[in-house]
Amino acid sequence: MEYLIHIGILICIYGILGLSLNLIVGVTGLLSITQAAFYGIGAYATAILLTTVGMNFFFAVLIGMAITAVISLGIGFVLSKFKDDYYALGSFGFNIIVYSIFLNWQSLTRGPLGIPGIGRPSLFGFTFSENIWFLVLSAVFLVAIYFFCEYLTNSSFGRVLKGIREDEEALRVFGYNTLFYKLAIFVIGAMLASVAGALFASYITFIDPSTFTLTESIFLLAIVILGGLASNKGAVIGAAVLILLPEILRFVGFPSDIAAQMRQVTYGVILIVLMLYRPQGLVGEYKL
Amino acid sequence: MDIVPQLIVNSIIAGAIYTMVALGFNLIYGTARFFDLGYGALTAVGGYAVFYFYKSLGLNIFFAIVIGMLVSGLLGWLLYRFIYAPLRERKSSSMVLLVAALGAFTAIQAVIAILFTSQFQTLSTSAGNDHVYEILGGVITQVQLITLIIGIVLMLGMALSLKYTMFGKAVKAVGDDEEVSKIVGINTRVVIGKVFFIGSAIAGLAGILVGFDTGIEPTMGLSLLLKGVIASIIGGIGNIYGGVLGAFFLGFVENFGIWKISGEWKDAIAFGVLIIFLLFRPQGILKR
């Protein structure tokens, strides 16, 4: 039972990450491979605020979102100068730079040692220390963010974003300031990812830089592409499938270090097969 | 002791390794016009093939190196034949190719880790008692000197064969305009296939030389690949001399950048340079 709860919490966290990246990659068509950086910033902000200041988790989430917003605004602004391949490559770069900062700014992040002893969230005297309650909390976050994303993509704001994906030039001709829209969605996506980071840090109670590498960003991209670009439902389904699949491999009886690598093989093969035979993913509405 | 001469020598050595990666990458990009990230994993394939044939089976060292190059070349060709070529013929966007290449990269890297464990291995059998030469007051090992020489020979060889052989002219024509090349009777599929084979074999050789110099691990490909890509872009993508210039430029910036700070920052510095170049001089030092 504990095990199922653990899987459930992971699906919630990755579902949030999938939704956040889907706004950027799926809806707006910006191939960003740096989402793990914002996930990490959220996680580190919460971890540091909880362990040093002893702040309430929910305040820490808000501050983490604010910090992520500022950083992602800067990154998004630089990236907005690039197109297609170069956009992807530049976003790669930012992931590696942020990872280096986690690793090397030792006075703040304790570098490779990581931050242990992060507390569980508490609200009005109630602490989410049992995993079942943490699952409830994560599920509430997931559902709230899901409906927020649904609202966003179906609003007029969301229609402009889809327009940018289809034909940015045309929208400019109509007088839309596409830079503003691209930056706004990039920042919103990053802020949502930081919420997932806060949940992760508080759930595992320990974080270190190795969680927030480029490989993680590629995994998040796999979630969005498998589920289907521009589909919020797809992002959550993609997260569930990609979390569950390696667990099945574990039951088949691979030793744990090989199972970890088998996960990578699975993600890689899934990306290739999808690109070859179903570029729109499971329930996606458009192709890359 | 003065550190500057050793920094200069280190920069040149780093430049020589980046040169090789950049040469292969540039050749492929210049012809097929897409960022072949799978190329990164092929450096590890070359390294591990030599590890297997030379250290485990005890074959002659030169024989093992040739096999290593053939194996990575062949794998590169297979990736092209069965993944990239069908996608290109369908006129898929460069995003699709990029994601497929990302998948190939992740899968190959993980397969190597399953076969050979993710432990760091060294190829050299005489660790520590290599021949050492003194140049300009800095120290350079025999392997590093060989790397430097091979890098320069490859650059000249590639530049001359592109200019004077029929195959080289065909490669250039395909790079300039694939459609027109087809019309004038060049079998573009075969030409690009050969380019993938040659470029990937060079990647393998780069991985092998790194393996003899420091060592190999399954994840070595990513950082090598990114350095090669950065070198190509800041040198002027698709331009052979540009790639070499970019490689040495990057080598110097990286090694002098960590003069006063920890060596862990190297990757962040490299990407910082890339982003500055993309913003202010996207065409690179030398134009194609």
Structure summarized in a few sentences:
Chain A has one domain (2-211). Chain A contains twelve helices and two strands.
**Beta-strand percentage of chain A?**
under 5%
Question: What string, H for helix and E for strand, traces the elements of chain B in order?
Answer: HHHHEEHHHHHHH
Number of helices of chain A: 12
From the alpha-carbon coordinates, what is the Rg of chain A to the nearest angstrom? 18 Å
Give the overall form of chain B: globular
Quaternary assembly = heterodimer
What best-fitting shape of chain A do the alpha-carbon axes yield?
globular
Main sheet summary of chain A: 2 strands, antiparallel
Largest sheet properties of chain B: 2 strands, antiparallel
- Unreliable spans of chain A are none
The largest contact between protein chains, plus residue counts on each side, is: A-B, 44 and 44 residues
**Contiguous runs where pLDDT drops below 50 for at least 5 residues of chain B:** none
Describe what you observe in this structure.
Helix content of chain A is 76%, strand content 1%. Chain A has helices at 2-27, 35-53, 57-79, 84-104, 106-109, 131-154, 156-166, 168-173, 178-204, 214-227, 232-252, 256-277, and strands at 122-123, 126-127. Chain A is mostly helical and 288 residues long. Chain A has a two-stranded antiparallel sheet. Chain B has 288 residues and is mostly helical. Chain B has one domain (13-220). Chain B has helices at 4-32, 38-56, 61-89, 94-116, 142-164, 166-176, 178-183, 188-213, 220-235, 240-257, 266-280, and strands at residues 132-135, 138-141. Chain B starts with a helix and ends in an 8-residue tail after the last helix. The model of chain B has no long low-confidence stretch (mean pLDDT 84). The chains are: A mainly alpha (288), B mainly alpha (288). The A-B interface holds A 31, 33, 78, 81-82, 84-86, 88-90, 92-94, 96-97, 100-101, 103-104, 214-215, 218, 221-222, 225, 257-258, 261-265, 267-272, 275-276, 279, 287-288 and B 34-35, 83, 86-87, 92-100, 102-111, 113-114, 117-118, 222, 226, 229, 233, 262, 264-265, 267-268, 271-272, 274-275, 278-279, 282.
